[in-house]
Fold these 3 entries.
Entry 1:
Amino acid sequence: MSELKEFRLPDVGEGLTEAEIVSWHVKPGDTVTDGQVIVEIETAKAVVELPCPFAGTVAKLLVDEGQTVDVGAPIIAVEIAGSGPAAPAEAPAKAPERTAVLVGYGVKTAPTERRARRQPAASEPKGAAVPGLRSDEGATREGTASRRPEASEPANRASPPRSTAKPPVRKLAKDLGVELAGLTGSGPEGSITRDDVQRAVAGSTGRSDIRGDQRVPIRGVRKHMAAAMVASAFTAPHVTEFLQVDVTETMAAVRRVRDLPEYEGLRVSPLLFVARALLTAVARNPMINSSWDEAAQEIVLHGQVNLGIAVAAERGLLVPNVKDAGSLTLPALAGALKALTETARAGKATPADLAGGTITITNVGVFGIDAGTPILTPGEAAILAFGQVRDAPWVVDGQLAVRKVCTLSLSFDHRIIDGELGSAALRDVGSMLEDPLRMLAWS
């Protein structure tokens, strides 16, 4: 005999309570092995791949792609070899169960609770829905609402075929809350286009108006980022200082280093030198690599530098960090920065990549911006913004010349860092970028 086992959404160890199902890697009827990656989920911090904790045959996917579920809720049923009779795949738990977790994250007891069903407004007829838009409860991947068949329709009515649309169009539809099955495609062979999705949004009440306004759900990484920035801005007293720097010698050093064999295949950019300069400045001014512990009423002076790099990813702002960056050689630091930013932009940064940062760099120069007042990453005391490098008039030895110039902006927590310390750290970074040899002299 065989039995059905449910795999429940695990707690990935970051205190999160829910996650969105991004994509399934399996379908009903597939054979899975113990430890095989079966689904990608998006938490408030990152996209995470989940392995199946047992082997068998997929009986049913209990949650659709795009749906948000609570930690501890069943997401997939797997038929495994067993000696007892088959158990129903969706039988309600009679008592709290030990929630499945990822290896290394521990186990928590978490009963599953269903969200309350949305009640229709007084002016909304029961069962009314806007064509093309997701129903708030029980929507299937094909876009049909999960409900009892009425007397006039057969109970065994077949599900409509999957709508034809390219992946970018499917993503746009998911972001805007549009069900593709409710649309008529205007593209080749009846495929659904971006314009079809936009028209569906424009024609729906409460989602858009005739001028093309759109509403994008706030969830996942973007939701977490917004909450963290608000908490940081209104918790830590921010101060920002600015310094304009002649980086002509640094730009020349970047070009020379690119030709060295040790850096073959690595990305050597001005950011690499900014990172090394900041790490050296931390060694000279250790208090800027610290955090404020409100509960303990202590300042935590960190023993190593976990260097965060702000990355504008498709899912929102991410700040992965290079662990113990101060101990790395320049080639190793270049490799770590390259791997970290590529992973983050691909949406593959893990919670471990994003946790434990101690100080951050944000490169606003890549957007053509000279300077800004960056908000501290929560739990950190300082963040350095690196502006664009551009030609500017500059006085050199009493003579006006055209030099490569950029602006540095250092925001810091004024509870920990006073003006003298913040100015000293910023001046150190600027001095090393004006003359890269200082990095060797001060290291």
Entry 2:
Amino acid sequence: MTLYLSWEQIAIRIALACIASLAIGYNRDEHGRPAGMRTVMLVTLTATLAMLQVNLLLPLTGKSSTSFNVLDLMRLPLGILSGIGFIGAGAIIKRENGAMGVTTAATLWFATMLGLLFGGGQLRLASASTVLALVILSGLKHVEELLPRMNRATLTLNLGEGAPAEDTIRAQIRDISLDIKTWTVQYVPSSSISLIRCELQWKASARKASEAPPGVSQLRTAPGVTGFYWEQ
């Protein structure tokens, strides 16, 4: 961070911050995320302006170049870095089996830090960080899609005359490599099984997460099955 800033230096820092945040924001828009180009650019530009203001206030009259610590100007950018958590929290959507938007929130946090770097004049570090962020957001996404992860679904079976016993259905589910997390069974009348609802868990890559595991279709055509509901 230089003591005195020229308008050319200010323009370069703002321009680079806009270009870097535009690239990151485009990546988020491309994948349909809540925080796109406008959000990321505004967050980065805000942090950049905060650091520029700090830089412009450094050469205050009556203070020597070795007494910057008494000015306490860093409260402004540090407050912005902490306050971005409110925006990040708004991007996170809590669901029953997890949360969505965590990467978006982390991107906004990173964009804030990126703005602080550009505003502070660490242009090489900020530029290298932008490239690294794009590699993480784009390149590692394809790697994540190949890695196996835990998936959950709810299976509901309506059963009629000729339906197999409860233990038999349990065994069929386990034979297709599905873990049973919850199990609810209904008998109507008390001697005849009429409904089974269970929560299942299995491992599959993100690319295959939207597909039902192989073998589930066999339950749909099993004897005595009058209704089949798969909620994933």
Entry 3:
Amino acid sequence: MKNRAWMPLNVGDYRNDTSHLRAMGHGGYLLLIMHYWSTGGLPDDDQQLAVIAGMTEREWKKWRPVLQAFFHHGWRHKRIDAEILYAQARYEKRAEAGKKGGKSKGDAKQCLSNASSNAQAMQKHTTTTTTKKKKEDTPSGASASKSYAFESGIIRLVEKDFQAWKAAFSQLDLSGELVALAPWAEQQGPSRWFHAVANALNKRNREVKATKDKAQTDPAFRWNGIEGAA
């Protein structure tokens, strides 16, 4: 993570741990921990620390013992170090999820592209509801029906397309979603239902994935106080 522009701060915990500081002490300490958060540490040099804390050398000499009590040897701060590691882990987790999400979108587009060549073939089997019922009542209709991996109303998918959709929309119970979409698909008509349903499934898949990710993600981490030297 290249940039940590946002630093968590729990005001209540901060005030409890720094109630003994005066305005200059608060200003210096906040500048020190903000620099620490942004860069990953502080220099062990009084002149540089005075500049970071916004103090003159005389002011720094007075406040140094008070502020140093919040840090460990070498101006290390265990709590901030832990928060930095946590922030880094969350960043990497989100980056990895983003890569997977991008791959899922690519798979969905590829699925639509591969399946489009079969749309016309399936449309030949799609007529009015009355005609479909008649065909399904005949032996030849029953035989044709067996060639579909899924069939509900106007939605008819051969094995190849059904498996492709199942892989692309892995967050869904595909059969259940298709059954629910069947009445709506009828309204789209023979020439439009295939792509309309695919787009609806793609949207629904993203929504379900986003909901699952949100439930699994840890609550936004917060500043749990300023830890003093052990």
